[in-house]
Amino acid sequence: MRKERVGFAVCGSFCTHEKALRALEALTKEYETVIPIVSETAAYTDTRFGTSDALLEKMEELTGREVLCDIPAVEPIGPKGLLDVLVIAPATGNTIAKLAAGITDTAVTMAAKAHLRNGRPVVLAVASNDGLAAGAKNIGELLARKNFYFVPFGQDSAFAKPSSLVADFTKIGETLDAALAGRQIQPVLLRD
Q1: CATH code at 2-180
Q2: SS3 state of residue 6
Q3: How far apart are CA 142 and CA 161, in angstroms?
Q4: pLDDT higher than 90, residue 108
Q5: Which of 8, 38, 96, 149 could form a disulfide with 179 if both were Cys (CB 3.0 to 4.6 A apart)?
Q6: Residues 96, 73: Cα–Cα separation, whole Å
């Protein structure tokens, strides 16, 4: 088992939670320490894709740790140097916009801020219906910023949802490896 400590944060793109859980399961088989984190929206919202309780239970079952789901719980990540890398999967357009603007009003954005103060990598798995519209400038901002690494992404339904972007969640592990080495995995843009 690898010794690097991984934070795995889930935001509210509910239709991608199953993919995120599969990626989390893969990481728990490779890394000794995986700390689960969820946004308040993911922690307390039931949708047609499942209940928040089921999400939290599954994350706790996979990691063997209590899910961190509020700002006071994640704030020590920075001062205590708890993580070597933070994965945000899915990283919603809302979360990406907040990261680009330096807003830290959720558990996930606070976890990122706390983690980034130590100059360590944040891996983003985009899932945004407006990634090629209003959200494009925020993705561009983070692509150019130090310590942010993107899981390869592309349009998930170019004709039905032409502005929508989603990461290839199966590439989270290799993106994480590259980020720990200070490299952006390539190609970052996927083609249909």
Answers
A1: 3.40.50.1950
A2: strand
A3: 23
A4: yes
A5: 149
A6: 21
Q: 3-state class of 46 per DSSP?
A: coil
Token pair recorded at residue 101: 């603007």
Place of tokens 């989390």: 24
What is the C-alpha to C-alpha distance for residues 42 and 39, in angstroms, rounded to an integer? Answer: 5
Cα 174 from chain centroid (whole Å): 14
For residue range 139-178, list pLDDT tens digits in order: 999 999 999 999 999 998 888 999 999 999 999 999 999 9
Q: Which two tokens stand for residue 25?
A: 């399961």
The whole-model pTM stands at 0.97
15-32 pLDDT per residue, tens: 999 999 999 999 999 999
Q: What is the mean pLDDT of the chain?
A: 96
* CB-based contact 5:33 (threshold 8 Å): yes
Asked if 63 and 32 touch (Cβ cutoff 8 Å), the reply is no
